[in-house]
Amino acid sequence: MNFDLTDEQEMVRDTFARFLDDNSSGERVRAALPSGFDPALWQGLAELGAFALRVPEEAGGLGLGLFDAAVVMEEAGRTLASGPLAEALVATRLLALLGGQDDLLGKAIGGEAVVTIAMRDVAEFGRQWVSGGLVAEAVVARKGNDVVLIAVPAEARVAEENLASTPIAEIDLAALPATVLGSGDAALATFAAGLEEWKLLIGAALSGLSRAALVLAAAYAGERKAFGVFIGTFQAISHPLADLIAEVDSGKFMVWKAIRAIADGDADAAAQVSLAGWWTAETASRTVTQSLHTFGGIGLTTEHDIHLFNLRAKAWPLAFGDPQQLLAEAGRRLYGNEAASLPDVGDLPIEFDLGEEARAVQAEIHAFFDKHVTDEERAKFHYSWEGHNPRIHKLLVENDLAYLQMPKDVGGRGLNAYAVTAARDAFEEEGWNNPVAGVAQMVSLIMHRFGSDELKQEVLSKVMSGDAICSLGYSEPGSGSDVFAAQCRAIPDGNGWKIEGTKMWTSGANLTDYVLMLTRTNTEVAKHKGLTMFIVPLKADGVTIQAVHTFMDERTNITFYDGVQIPDSWRLGEVDGGARTMAASLELEHGGGFAKVQKVLVEEAVELAREIQAPGGGKLIDQPNAQTRLARAYANYLAAELLQYRANWVQVEGKTNLAYGPMTKVFSSEKFTTDSRDLLDLTAPYSLSKRKGPAGKLNQAYRHAHGTTIYGGSSEVHRSMVAEKGLGLPRSRQ
Predict the structure, then answer these.
(1) Mind giving me the DSSP string for 342-391?
(2) What Rg, from alpha-carbon coordinates, does the chain have?
(3) Do residues 724 and 732 lie in contact, with contact meaning Cβ atoms separated by under 8 Å?
(4) Which fold has domain 595-727?
(5) What share of the chain is helix, strand, coil (3-state, %, to 5)?
(6) Cα separation of 441 and 588, whole Å?
(7) Candidates 3.40.50.200, 2.40.110.10, 2.120.10.30, 3.40.228.10; correct CATH number of 453-588?
(8) Which residue has the higher pLDDT, 725 or 734?
(9) How far is CA 723 from CA 244, 582, 726, 730, in A?
């Protein structure tokens, strides 16, 4: 897996970034108005080789890949470059591939002439809006069975006020002279592939634009005060921005993933192109609106740059038409067998493959379940603690498949984050996704690092052998996600301790042997400094376990501790040092989100849609509305997976981590919730049933999804972490 550019690509990006910073500043963008075209900028881009990027070397170009062009377009988007750059990149490539226009191609590469593309078939839409039409001397277009070059004289290019003052123009292309560049299937496929390339290039530009707008908003929120405090401390300001940075990053990665999918020949590559175009357009629209809102009234003034981002975010993608068309197109490509011509993308360094170790452990897991698990046992599998099967858990331990991410030096398998992610996917496919092993390895790691020899002999050995399992005792009735507000007391008692208090959401306590408990040992210091961690036996005198049932078909518990005696040797770490001890569990944090269950959700919805009879004949899956909604859920799953992969990658490679794990968690849990609701609606009333099969699984997914935004830290807590670490906003919680 790799999210890094090559050294050469970094150099290209830096070169264009420096040039654009100097020549496409807010001042320069304003100076280019009202035409929205900067001739000096255009010439400078030509001198840097921008218009030769995608032209093959044999035609006088640089012959670089689509990914290289996307890197440049991201910088162009960040700086709101004034001119139809994405369209020109496609047009010069088309001129080179179709041939016969060497003189014009040379002028276009050299910045002496602007050549653009028409989005619609001229045979059907003779008069149409053309991006860059105000300054273009020629337009490459489809006209029926031909691909043509249409010369556009100056008198046909009429300026018209428009939303963002870009050089768009409505031109009667059918009335202008046209030269045939190619005819038939091959030529039409080449042109169609050019339009697919444009979707990815404009998507890259929009991702750069969106991030730049967020950076401006975050910086302003960190310096503007209201009511005596920085407005970035208000969650109403910081949390929407935190949500959007996840959407912006995932949009960028969706562009990358689509290019990778084309290179790999993936069956879903064409759909991913459509989704990348739709996602980045939608995200840019919402991002610039929220960013402008962050500025308040000043954001409405023409003196501030943020309004330029707002207008360009709409102007660039709408040259194609309604972005929702791209989502519908993705639906047809995914579920309606619609084919598409795709460009040759060339080489690219980005890789989303989890690797051989990941594939090997997946095969090992599937072989284990085939060999050891009966159909009767499978029927009782459940995502919660209630799915625990002691026999299977013990066998997983014996086959080195339980403690996969736990380091080898403490008895685990020591897999890297990629293989752990793959393993989780394999367990999900088998239906074995309860939290028992995950919690056991977390507790075991803490006991290894902070436990006494006596504790390791009496408890750790049992947990590591699979003969005992553990729960987590963090939350309390009055504190929820604020674990540092714990009030359950550990009181010194001779050579040991006495536990007094209550813990809430002690899931699995009715099944487990021990609980890893965070207790209050000092009330005279800051709340996070007065905590100590212990292992507490759940079968000891003084422990009462009361069931709490959820509508998610799971049982959790409230647990009461009345003078529970434990020896000091069962303490973990220093007295009042519980926060540091608890931090050891973060070593097992690999950015896990809910992409795996989102994927299953989509698959089950697709299966049910293939079964449901639609009004008027056919199946629900054949309906455009169904295809569109399924495509949206697929996009959300894909985005969540890419965010998770990024979190895995930074952990494995030791890169700077800007709260990528929390970002993955909050994004995927929120999308899981909205998609489970929408797909339940789509497949109603069949989805109301709990019957075995896809209907029952969709029903369960809807109920399950609601808990994912709460347990493991609520979405609000994670949004605050993302806002602070990912956007540099001031701390929003005390």
Answers:
(1) ---------B----HHHHHHHHHHHHHHHHH--HHHHTT--SSGGG--HH
(2) 29
(3) yes
(4) Butyryl-CoA Dehydrogenase, subunit A; domain 3 (1.20.140)
(5) 55, 15, 30
(6) 9
(7) 2.40.110.10
(8) 725
(9) 10, 23, 6, 8
As a three-state string, the secondary structure of 596-647 is HHHHHHHHHHHHHHHHCECCCCCEHHHCHHHHHHHHHHHHHHHHHHHHHHHH
- State the CB neighbour count (10 A cutoff) for residue 124: 11
Nearest to 675 by CA among 595, 591, 592, 593: 595
Instruction: Give the three-state DSSP class for 441.
Output: helix
Q: What six digits make up the tokens of 36?
A: 């929205």
Q: Is 35 left (phi over 0), alpha (psi -120 to 50) or beta?
A: alpha
Structure tokens at 465: 């052998």
Q: How far is CA 378 from the centre of its chain?
A: 31
Segment 165-209, tens digit of pLDDT: 999 999 999 999 999 999 999 999 999 999 999 999 999 999 999
- If one counts every other C-beta atom within 10 angstroms of the C-beta of residue 502, the result is 18
Instruction: Give the tens place of pLDDT for each residue, 293-307.
Output: 999 999 999 999 999
CB distance 38 to 32 below 8 Å: yes
- The one-character DSSP state at 162 is -
How do residues 90-145 score in pLDDT, each as one tens digit? 999 999 999 999 999 999 999 999 999 999 999 999 999 999 999 999 999 999 99
Return d(Cα 455, Cα 438) in angstroms, integer: 20
Q: How far is CA 45 from the centre of its chain?
A: 32
Q: What would the mean pLDDT of 509-513 be, rounded to a whole number? A: 96
Q: Please state whether the predicted TM-score (pTM) of the whole model is above 0.85.
A: yes
Could you state, in order of their start, the residue ranges of all structural domains in the chain? 356-434, 453-588, 595-727
CA 681: distance to chain centroid? 24
β-pair partners for 532:
519
Residue type, 43: Q
